[in-house]
Specification:
173 residues; alpha+beta; five-stranded mixed beta sheet; 30% helix
Length: 173
């Protein structure tokens, strides 16, 4: 970072399956993402702005087959070069969520994990295939073992007379 000029430096990255396999995380199995952005050097800090877009391969919550999930997100971080003492103390400036302190003797910021976390946070909480795209065999098994089907079978069984009084209470309310 120390070697950057005073102007804006452009960045371009392509994140592929190799990137995701190197991180060894179970949530995202692979993908193809384009990262573009810039680093702006200012007095006392650097500003990192990145735009991330593409697709990641994740398991479907319903059938567990892999599916492609589109991703479009961005990342902004302020990077400040400080002494090793300031990093240990966590001081030197007001702490913000987007502030990263880097040892001025190293002058290197590794954004590998930060990029991954940004991508992972852009994945929706629920991710399922479009209707009709889920694995047919898995969907048959799910239908066979669904709670609704199990409750139908239980309803056909005779209720134990010891519990019939409780069943009446349940029906009345």
């Amino acid at each position: 970072m120390k070697a950057l000029s005073e102007d804006i430096t452009s960045l371009e990255y392509e994140l592929t399956d190799d990137y995701f396999s190197a991180l060894n995380d179970a949530d995202i199995q692979g993908g193809s993402l384009h990262v573009s952005g810039s680093i702006r050097k200012a007095v006392g800090f650097f500003e990192l702005l990145l735009d991330i877009s593409g697709t990641v391969r994740i398991p479907c919550d319903r059938c567990l087959d892999d599916m492609d999930q589109p991703i479009k997100t961005n990342l902004r971080q302020v990077v400040k070069l400080v002494s090793a003492d300031q990093i240990e103390e966590g001081s030197g400036s007001s702490l913000q969520d987007d502030l990263v302190m880097v040892d001025e003797n190293e002058g290197v910021l590794d954004i590998t994990w930060t990029l991954y976390e940004t991508i992972a946070l852009a994945v929706p909480i629920q991710h399922v295939h479009q209707p009709g795209d889920c694995n047919d065999a898995m969907m048959r098994v799910l239908t066979e073992h669904s709670a609704a089907r199990s409750s139908d079978a239980d309803a056909k069984k005779e209720i134990d007379p010891r519990w019939s009084a409780l069943a009446k209470l349940k029906i009345e309310n």
